[in-house]
Amino acid sequence: MRVKQAAYGLATMAPVLGPLLVRLRRGVRGGEGGGSNSARYCYSVWLRHLVHADKSGLNTRPATVVEMGPGDSLGMGLAALLSGSERYYALDLVEFANPTKNLQIFDELVGLFRRREPIPDNDEFPKVRPPVETYDFPAQILDEARLSTALAEDRLKLIRESILNMGGRDSMISYKTPWSDAGVMEAGSVDVVCSQAVMEHVDDLSTAYGAMKLWLKPGGYVSHEIDFKSHGLAIGWNGHWAYRDATWKLICGRRPYLLNREPLSTHVGLLEKRGFEIRSLVRAKAEPAVPRERPSPRFRGVSEDDLTTPSAFIQASTG
Ligand SMILES: C[S@@+](CC[C@H](N)C(=O)[O-])C[C@H]1O[C@@H](n2cnc3c(N)ncnc32)[C@H](O)[C@@H]1O
After folding, report:
1. For ligand 1, what atom is nearest to the CA of residue 96?
2. CA torsion 125→128→130→133, rounded to 10°?
3. Which among 55, 135, 167, 193 has the fewest CB atoms less than 10 Å away?
4. How many angstroms separate the alpha carbon of residue 270 from the centre of ligand 1?
């Protein structure tokens, strides 16, 4: 596994083959157990974040939503718009989504909201997190009055036009790729910054969390599901922690992103350092596949919590 992955990383550095390989397989795509090319996945993920926001006493009527790393479609943001949000900004490193796919996902999402479909659960998406207590449609949050306004025909037309005219003056949607610095968003303009299976890929976490703090309004919050697992790059969920830094660098090669290999405590620590207050922390638990003695020197000191946390959902507010 180590040799195979290092060989691939090395190949991405070759003069002609490298850029071609990177174009063909740009990093690691698709949230675990689904991926944003499925409307039901996007619907499930958005509603799970919303239900947890409600439970944590956070704003469940966010006017302006930023999503980091939407991947194959902007479905999570389209679900936010169909729940009544007014503006959606998608910030990715790589442009994966396109209008045709987004329109298809949008039409399917409209049907799901109109039918008040239950949240697709663990039978359908066994690996998607965070879990919620009940998978019934969250009618206490998305009540009839809210949804009849959000799903009004003229509003659906506006969202549809926004998909076709992303970034236009009257568009409700902006898709910014690649985003590189905090200046892409106006300070103090955002209600929630969310992501699914993305923050484990972000290279400069400190800058990213700093940018989120800057963008959020007072009382705004972040909502991130983070997958610390090895994404098939090693054997066992924390097998990638066994690679020494030099090997890891080879594996990364010139791919635009891979994994930052940071455990839960790094994310929590950086959020707190930026002045966020942790409002919800839902950890998955598993025995480490690679025990404490085996990880490369960089990971030998990880805490018991980190060593038994393959993924976590974090919501944190600006205080
Ligand atoms: C595993 S995919 C997840 C996609 C989607 N959220 C889903 O649930 O299917 C990871 C995504 O993170 C994006 N990504 C990687 N580094 C990023 C960064 N620094 N800022 C924003 N997005 C990033 C990738 O381009 C990709 O779209």
Report:
1. 27
2. 10
3. 167
4. 19
pLDDT digits (tens, 9 = 90+) for 22-49: 666 554 545 555 689 999 999 999 999 9
Alpha-carbon 192 to chain mean position: 12
The third-level CATH classification (topology) of the domain covering 2-317 is Rossmann fold (3.40.50)
- 220 closest CA partner among 183, 194, 200, 198: 194
pTM listed for this prediction: 0.93
Q: Where are the domains of the chain?
A: 2-317
What is the distance in A from the centroid of ligand 1 to the CA of 67?
10
**pLDDT tens figures, 138-147:** 999 999 999 9
Determine the 3-state secondary structure of 174 from DSSP. Answer: strand
Nearest to 48 by CA among 37, 60, 38: 60
> Which candidate, 99, 100, 83, places its Cα nearest to that of 45?
83
CA–CA distance, 220 with 188 (Å, rounded to integer): 9
CA distance 123 to 181: 39
d(CA 56, CA 264): 19
Cα(91) to ligand 1 centroid in Å equals 9
